[in-house]
Amino acid sequence: MDCDPRGTISQQGNVMRIDNAFVEDVVPANRSSNGYLLVSYATAGANRTTSIQNLRLNITRNTVLLDSLGRQIRLSDIRKGMWVNVVFSSAMTRSIPPQSTAFLIVARRDFQTSSSTTTTGRIAMVDPLNEILYTGNPFDVNSQTKYLLSNATITDRSGRPISIRALQPGQRVRITHANFQTSSIPPQTTAFHVQLL
């Protein structure tokens, strides 16, 4: 008996649904295209076997992305290896993998507690060349935290993308970062998203 936790596709009118889809890949939007999620789900086969299939869910500006508490999140907040519930169009391409437009994506567990933490603080120093941000008291290294920004998205108060060069000491920021940190002084961790407040 297979105990894979992946859900199966069900149809409800003109929409399809998968509860407990596994995120295989996340491709954020760029200038030429919207982003997408590649998810896998289970399908029942002959002799009580289960096979795993992939589905590409195209993200548009109308796609609603939520965490498990109903708070709005960004596509960049969803990571490979997470579990999501998805609602999408029943119109699918015949490509491999098939593609459909996502209407709703809900992170199964609160992504803030399962893979990341959010911290609010003041910028102490920014190193744009090395993509590093320090928060805390600029005169007390023991109060600071060092954030590596190499793959982080940085946004202004309205959620529009900005450059690391727009960040200045003294500004308040909300940083979504990895749950782990080094035991160095200051402690160091990886930032996923930085938003000016």
Describe the protein's topology:
Elements: E1 9-12, E2 15-27, E3 36-44, E4 50-58, E5 64-66, E6 83-89, E7 99-107, H1 111-114, E8 116-127, E9 132-135, E10 145-148, E11 153-155, E12 172-178, E13 188-196
Parallel strand pairs: 4-7, 5-7, 10-13, 11-13
Antiparallel strand pairs: 1-2, 2-3, 2-6, 3-4, 6-7, 8-9, 8-12, 9-10, 12-13
Number of helices: 1
Note the main sheet: 5 strands, mixed, barrel
Per CATH, the class of the largest domain reads: Mainly Beta
Poorly predicted sequence stretches spanning 5 or more consecutive residues: 110-114
Give the mean pLDDT. 83
The tally of strands reads 13
Q: Which structural class should the secondary elements be placed in?
A: mainly beta
Give the overall form.
elongated
Q: What is the name of the CATH topology of the largest domain?
A: OB fold (Dihydrolipoamide Acetyltransferase, E2P)
The helicity comes to under 10%
- Radius of gyration in whole Å, from Cα? 20 Å
Q: Give the number of domains.
A: 2
Give the N-terminus to C-terminus distance in angstroms: 51 Å
Strand order of the largest sheet: 2-3-4-7-6
Q: Give the percentage of residues in beta strands.
A: over 45%
CATH superfamily of the largest domain: Nucleic acid-binding proteins
| CATH second-level architecture of the largest domain | Beta Barrel
Instruction: Summarize the helix and strand pattern as letters.
Output: EEEEEEEHEEEEEE
